[in-house]
Design goal:
five-stranded antiparallel beta sheet; two-stranded antiparallel sheet; 9 strands; globular
């Protein structure tokens, strides 16, 4: 056997074993210190004293969502598609002071009978009503909730904005609008008719649409909104209204414009409507009505705290004094709305 092989088989001297032990011990200490340093510097996914992540409330297979979608798809054309939005957290606390209400009552009383007001702070739900029981011929303010009904049908897949409709001799009507100056036989998409109905308050557009979407469907839809007097809804242009039901329509319009994919389009139309009676320093989506014994306006004021406002009256001449009355009432209610 060679000396080299023999040397490899013999145990190392005692001094050599001691050196290796020191080296291994030092390496272990360094490794442990490095591990502890890494753990100290690496951020935890959940803070040590913070709340644990909340479990996902939705079912993993989307069963609840599927059921809701099926229910909406099978609903009748008369059922509004939008439900009231759930309030996140605590609703805004707001109310007119007794002094403010007394001032508003005195202002409105100064105009005599035949003037009613509905005001609602849309964040808190606080309402102010004056002349609540007075019933008025609705005139063209009803074109806004009728458009709401038609846009809701579109959102449910029961109407098509690109569908084409023809102006026939049976649709001829006087009063407001521009289609009456066009040739019989002219064609319009549903979207174009809705534009004319709101922006121009077009009576021919209403007749064309009413042939395609009869009043009975709208009557059922309006009743489902929670009207106090659903019997006042007739063939849209011959309906009646009082202040509380103006509030029902305005809440439904606001909810739709905030929640529905087609809401922005409806809001844009209502921001272009003519003959401003209600005035505001803030963006305003509105619809007026003006006929015999009817001089009305109602809309949503997009102030820092949005509010709904309807002013109904039995004026009919549209004099400078009538428009001034609406400006004064609007300004008083805007000051009250922004007081908190």
């Amino acid at each position: 056997m060679s000396g080299k092989a023999q040397h490899a088989r013999n145990p190392p001297p005692r001094r050599t074993r001691t050196v290796w032990g020191v080296i291994l011990l030092t390496a272990g200490v360094v490794l442990m210190a490095g591990t502890l340093l890494y753990l100290a510097l690496t951020p935890a996914s959940t803070p040590a004293n913070g709340p644990l992540p909340a479990p996902d409330a939705a079912a993993p297979d989307g069963t609840a969502a599927s059921t809701a979608a099926s229910s909406a798809a099978s609903s009748s054309s008369a059922a509004p598609s939008s439900a009231p939005a759930a309030t996140a957290g605590t609703a805004r606390s707001f109310a007119f002071t007794e002094e403010t209400k007394a001032e508003l009552d005195a202002l409105l009383a100064g105009y005599g009978e035949g003037v009613s007001v509905y005001f609602e702070d849309l964040e808190s739900g606080y309402t102010y009503l004056y002349g609540a029981d007075t019933r008025y011929f609705a005139a063209s303010v009803m074109k806004a909730p009728y458009c709401l009904y038609l846009y809701d049908l579109v959102s449910q897949g029961k109407a098509d904005l690109d569908a084409v409709y023809t102006y026939t001799a049976a649709d001829t009507a006087g009063g407001t609008g521009v289609i009456q100056n066009m040739e019989v036989g002219s064609v319009f998409t549903l979207r174009e008719l809705l534009h004319h109905l709101i922006v121009d308050s077009d009576n021919v557009a209403l007749r064309i649409l009413r042939r395609a979407f009869p009043a009975d469907g709208f009557q059922a839809y309006a009743a489902a909104l929670g009207l106090h007097r659903p019997e006042d809804v007739r063939h849209i242009n011959d309906s009646y209204i009082h202040a509380a039901d103006a509030g029902v329509y305005l809440r439904a319009l606001y909810r739709f414009m905030e929640e529905n994919p087609y809401g922005a389009e409806l809001r844009e139309l209502m921001m272009q409507t003519r003959n401003p009676m209600i005035r505001s320093g803030w963006p305003l989506a509105r619809k007026y009505g003006w006929a015999d014994k009817a001089f009305h306006d109602m809309g949503i004021v997009y102030a820092p705290h949005p509010y709904a406002l309807a002013i109904l009256s039995d004026r009919e001449d549209g004099t400078a004094q009538d428009f001034a009355m609406f400006r004064t009432i609007s300004a008083a209610l805007e000051r009250a709305a922004l007081s908190a």
